[in-house]
Amino acid sequence: MNTVSISRRRFAQLLGAGAAAAVAKPAFSFAAEPIAQPATTSVVRLSSNENPYGPSSKALKAMSDAFDLSCRYPDEHVDELIQALAKLNGVNRDQILLGDGSGEILKLCAETFTGSTRGKLVAADPTFEAILNHARVNGAEVVKVPLNRSFGHDLPKMMAAAKEGLIYICNPNNPTASITPRNEVGEFIAKAPSQTMVLVDEAYYHYADSPDYESVIPLIKDHPNLIVARTFSKIYGMAGLRCGYCVAQREMIERMRPHQPWDSVNIMALAAAIASLNDPDQVANGKRLNTEAKTFVTSELDAMGYKQIPSQANFIMVDVKRPVAPLIQALKQRNVQVGRLFPALPNHMRVTIGKKTEMESFLSAFRQIAA
Ligand SMILES: Cc1ncc(COP(=O)(O)O)c(C=O)c1O
């Protein structure tokens, strides 16, 4: 089932009849109306590394409770979420900056730390491209350093390429789902010149279970040039709501803040994020279900002779042994959407881990086109 189509119905089911009726005031009557089926209902969407299980039921309830507050600016909710995130990450409140998705955090970093006068952006190739585009728009030089043979960041080369400006480390990396080992990242941060900003994007942090992986948030206290980005879009299933944040020392947050519009995170996303953090099952269930479906699809692909880059995320990068672009199109014609072409890895297909039934649909279509 398409994740896009479930949300409204599931919302009403989860709330129960009473709460759903409360939601069904004239301005918010969707729970009581017949629901139009999107044209794409039959599409299996494995293209955007979304969480197919959706937000926590606690988050859905919190959003329904927040409807009446939609006419208010979200100051109190901002304070509450910042407080919760500071506690979660063992930092002070002034070390957290919220964003309209972590995408906004990446943009703020590019605007604050890169540009023709501020310095270049150094990033891996391939990696999550958003920040590269922001840096370019900002007039910055962008240096791409190929991943190493283990699909980790080539940190010595990235260090050599950087002087001032910003180094972007995506760990686990999108699109390869690979990690850069914690000792390498730690050493790199220890050695990075103080005038070089290091942004570590931990969007997929919760999915990584390798003993070689760890968050670098604990290093922030000793490194004024380190910023760590996190998101509610992945394990918390809130991609459509838009909420992310970063952790850094207070001085860095204060440099970034003037680049941000006021109130960029909406009250629904804030309410959902606060409630999600209070749901201990959300992370545990999300990890477990992802691992189960990933184990299923990777063992099937192994049996078919298609290797993958070992995945530490909610997606896999499959070596399809031929140019991937026609295969992406052929899958699309069979209503299966997978990731776009990543030019640095033209024979690899990025496939998001959906529900097991979605992975079955993917495998069945893939068998047809790759035979
Ligand atoms: C590595 C990485 N960082 C950041 C983002 C942006 O996420 P958000 O939805 O929080 O803006 C994504 C989205 O897929 C991502 O893959």
At the fourth level of CATH, the homologous superfamily of the largest domain is: Type I PLP-dependent aspartate aminotransferase-like (Major domain)
The tally of beta strands, per DSSP, is 12
* Series of secondary-structure elements, N-terminal to C-terminal: HEHHEHEHEHEHEEEHHHEEHEEH
The major beta sheet can be summarized as: 7 strands, mixed
Form type: globular
Rounded average pLDDT: 91
So what's the CATH class of the largest domain?
Answer: Alpha Beta
Low-confidence stretches: 1-34
State the helicity in percent bands.
40-55%
Total number of distinct structural domains: 2
Number of helices: 12
- Rg, rounded, reads 21 Å
Q: Which fold name corresponds to the CATH topology of the largest domain?
A: Aspartate Aminotransferase, domain 2
Ions and ligands:
pyridoxal-5'-phosphate
| Beta-strand content bin | 5-15%
Spatial strand arrangement across the major sheet: 2-8-7-6-5-3-4
Q: Classify the secondary structure makeup into a structural class.
A: alpha/beta
CATH architecture of the largest domain: 3-Layer(aba) Sandwich
Compile the SSE list and pairings:
Layout: H1 3-23, E1 44-46, H2 57-66, H3 75-89, E2 96-99, H4 102-113, E3 121-125, H5 130-137, E4 142-146, H6 155-161, E5 165-170, H7 182-191, E6 196-201, E7 226-231, E8 244-248, H8 250-256, H9 267-277, H10 280-304, E9 308-309, E10 315-319, H11 325-333, E11 336-338, E12 348-352, H12 356-370
Parallel strand pairs: 1-11, 3-4, 3-5, 5-6, 6-7
Antiparallel strand pairs: 2-8, 7-8, 9-10, 10-12
Helix pairs in contact: 1-2, 2-9, 3-9, 4-5, 10-12
Bound molecules: pyridoxal-5'-phosphate.
